[in-house]
Amino acid sequence: MSKTVLLAGSGLRKAFGGVQAVRGVDFTVSAGEVHALVGENGAGKSTLVKMLSGVVEPDSGTISWLDKPVALRSPANARALGIQVIHQELELMLPLSVAENIFLGALPSRGGFVNRRKLYGKAREVLEGLGASIDPAMPVRDLYIADRQVVEIARALVGNARVLFLDEPTAALPPVETQKLMAAIGRLREQGVGLIYVSHKLDEVIQIGDRISVMRDGRKVAELERGTTTRESLVEQILGRELKNLTLEKGHKLKDKAVRVENLRAAGALEGVSFDAGKGEIVGFFGLLGAGQSAIPEILFGFRDADADAVEMGTLNQLPSSPAQAIRAGLGFVPSDRKGAGLALNLPIWENLLMTDLGRVTRGGFIRRELVDAECNAIVDQLDIRCSSIDQQTGNLSGGNQQKIVLGKWHHDQTDILLLDEPTRGVDVGAKAEIYRLLHAYAASGGCCLVFSSDAEEVATLCNRAYAMRHGQITRQIDPSNLDVPNLIAAAL
Amino acid sequence: MAKSDQIARPAHSKNSRSALVREFYSRLRASVDPQIAGLLICLAGLIVGFSFSSPYFLSLQNLTNMLLSVSVIGTMAGVSALVLVSRGLDLSVGSIVGLVGVVVALVIEATSSAPLGIAVGLVTGGVCGILNAALFVNVGINSIIVTIGTLSIFRGLAFVISEGQTVNVFNEFMLELGAGRIYGIPYSVLLMLVLFVILHVVATHTRVGRTLYAIGANPRASRLSGLNIGIYRYGVFVMNGIFAGVAGILLIGQAATAVPAAGIGYELLVVTAVLLGGTSLHGGEGRIAGTLLGVIIIGVLSNGMTLIGINSYYQIIAHGTLLLLAVALDRLRQGLPKDE
Q1: Is the Cβ of B225 closer than 8 Å to some Cβ of chain A?
Q2: Taking the CB of residue A274, how many other CB atoms lie within 10 A of it?
Q3: Which H or E run includes B181?
Q4: A95 and chain B: CB distance < 8 Å anywhere?
Q5: CA nearest to B124, candidates B149, B162, B98
Q6: Which of A245, A400, B309, B340 has its CA 20 to 30 A from that of B72?
Q7: Alpha carbon distance B128, B149 (integer Å)
Q8: Which chain B residues are Cβ-neighbours of A359 within 8 angstroms?
Q9: Is there a common fold for A5-239 and A257-492?
Q10: How many CB atoms are closer than 10 A to CB A328?
């Protein structure tokens, strides 16, 4: 390619406390190029990004900007050159307007008074340049996530960014919004910005990446030009082995009903939804953001009010009024927000695993350490949670292992029905496959899973049967023979 | 953490003493956590410093007096640590001390019955706790704001009920409770120490205790794990009110009078002790043993400053400084503020 190389790193190495995170990586990004970066969690992607954006200094190797060697000592230093990172956790001021966010620190003003007309005008200009029609006066809080990301990108552009790192920008996005973001990225490419696109979502990477670099164990194991790879070969390169059993057998014998709900209604979210699920079955609920599917587990688990004509669920024949009641009836819930709602990150693993039922290791009010050890080590073994001991702080584990702990909270005999909201969000390919296997094993032993997801691929891979949703209603029930991504998306659009 | 880790390690490897001693040290190293070790070192520093400045400081009598002087806040601090662990904060305890003191003294004055007075006092403390909990749990107001409000309400009630007057306590039982000793140890001090031992066991080894930690570490995850957060929050605030009542009862026993202004500023001393003890402002972390050390540090500092003749006004400044120091330490444990 004859394009100008903006940012280049060569022979980059970095170790943290004796662990080599990155072992000699060359990486470049040119003007008007999208360079995708993929790899499992812990492969060294984020360390590489941190070195190239001034967050950490490499142990060895050189970084050059426009062919001149530079030392990036801090993020501010990198930003001054034109290198910016759009983080997974967006850094926007939610109550402030779109325009104020974009021009933060450089508000057009005269004599100390903000010139609103000019502010909104300039903001609209930048946003239209990204192909987005967002009202500059709107508070960021009221925007969809994809639009928030566009605002953050706009802010970077106003700050004269020439190289943008996008870290998992679509992790929380439904397909339609993903396409909006892809369009904005396309505009950026046309404007000559160099983009580094870090993602677990391989279909997107193949769609958007001009080049794709694959990292594994701190090394770059492949650099592929657009159109020279497939999803399957990417997965193999990421894992360094063939991926077995990601697609699981769908053969399922209908047994007893585990869940039956008729005409479920919740103001502003659900308009009369009826569904059922059998023991040993994994049933998916697929819909785009705002389709209402994420309200269902909240209602079934007793922390959101709703009405229904008939309910049969575990030992309940009405909707539960609290999570405690739902749990007694045999339900378990894996929330989408792992850090906020699933785990207490600063507590050890065992306290998280037993949070749902500390009673089974308690005798006379006192916690018995030998019971804790027996219970938790069994769960850790069965779910293959990788940790040094059950006393390790939960926050120190990888995303995939953390998610297994959330599953482990329900890994006891009392849980007959498991509600899973976006069960593999932010989890890497390898851990995702393991979680799918665990859920299938759970179903095979007679458990019932309801999976609520805006990831069509996940529903198609994981579930035996699915409901597609739109505007708070079920648009179609998709039986096993028709369960694939195009059918799901077609039914949800 | 890394720094204090080094402090915690006793220098023991210089010569080979008996295996028993080595075993003792290695157990010590495994069981003493850095926070506690840091507090012990800090305390040792204060004690050495003051004992050089005043020969009287290290006398048994003075040390007993020092413990007696912090027994009132010490009685409250252990439960208050659990309140903070579960992500609440109770700033009304100082006012409850004053209110309960006045209530108990008036009941005893009217009925001459110490048991009745004490019972009414404990109920009063419990009702204060219920009010705090109701506003926090049911109305959903931030507990700091709730208890700033009730701090003023309870204090005002103390003045209203006593009509602003001091009530003398002549009851034998109450005076014995305040001044009596067993083997030279004042009852108040004994009560405080026993309470700390019980609370330490509750916090570390019981289902109730660990549930409070889980709730503080992540309330939402706890609720979704089926825990009834509201009941635990009620429990911990009511206990805190009751033990503030106990503190108020001990105080009028020690002083032989009940003053409506008693206990002003105690909430700050309690919070300081709790934070010094390593309880995080963000909940889910905290040590009862550390809180006891925090209480003792406050006592040593006040006592030592008095002995070497520092004006008590300066001691008020010292208390504030100590509180900020404790919060700064909490901050440092989370990591210094990063360059944005």
Answers
A1: yes
A2: 15
A3: strand B181-182
A4: no
A5: B98
A6: B309
A7: 12
A8: 207
A9: yes
A10: 15
Alpha carbons A166 and A40: distance in angstroms, whole number: 16
A70 contacts A64 by C-beta, under 8 angstroms: yes
Domain ranges of chain A: 5-239, 257-492
Residues 271-310 of B with CB under 8 A from A: 284-285
Chain-chain contact of A367 with B210 (C-beta, under 8 angstroms): yes
Architecture per CATH, domain A5-239, reads as 3-Layer(aba) Sandwich (3.40)
Domain ranges of chain B: 71-263
Q: How far apart are alpha carbons A58 and A79 in whole angstroms? A: 18
Task: Summarize pLDDT for B221-280 with one digit per residue, the tens.
Answer: 998 888 899 999 999 999 999 999 999 999 999 999 999 999 999 999 999 999 999 898
Q: Does B228 touch chain A (CB under 8 A)?
A: yes
| 3-class state of residue B276 by DSSP | helix
- The contacts of residue B254 (CB under 8 Å, 6+ apart) are B68, B72, B178, B179, B188
Strand A473-478 relative to strand A465-470, pairing: antiparallel
Neighbours of A133 (CB within 10 A): 9
In contact, A252 and A480? CB cutoff 8 Å: yes
| A80 lies within 8 A of chain B by CB | no
Alpha helices, H only, chain B: 2-8, 19-31, 34-53, 60-85, 93-111, 114-133, 143-162, 172-179, 187-205, 207-217, 219-224, 229-255, 266-276, 288-307, 312-334
Question: Taking a C-beta distance cutoff of 8 angstroms, is the pair A4, A164 a contact?
Answer: no
Residue A55 and residue A74: Cα distance in Å, rounded? 6
Q: Whole-model pTM?
A: 0.74
If you search the block for the tokens 């694939």, which residue do you land on? A484
Q: Residues 40 to 79 of A: which have CB under 8 A from any B CB? A: 74-76
| Whether the Cβ atoms of residue A302 and residue A319 lie closer than 8 Å to each other | yes
Contact predicate A276/A259, CB 8 Å? yes
**CB-based contact A285:A477 (threshold 8 Å):** no
Q: Which CATH class is domain A257-492?
A: alpha beta
Contacts across the A-B interface (CB distance below 8 Å): 75
Mean pLDDT, chain A cut into blocks of 10 residues (493 residues total): 82 84 93 91 84 91 93 87 81 85 82 85 89 87 83 86 88 72 88 90 88 91 88 80 49 68 88 91 85 88 91 91 92 90 91 91 92 93 88 86 92 89 84 90 91 88 90 88 82 75
The DSSP line for A286-347 is EE-TTSSTTHHHHHHTTSS--B-SEEEETTBSS--SSHHHHHHTTEEEE-S-IIIII--TTS
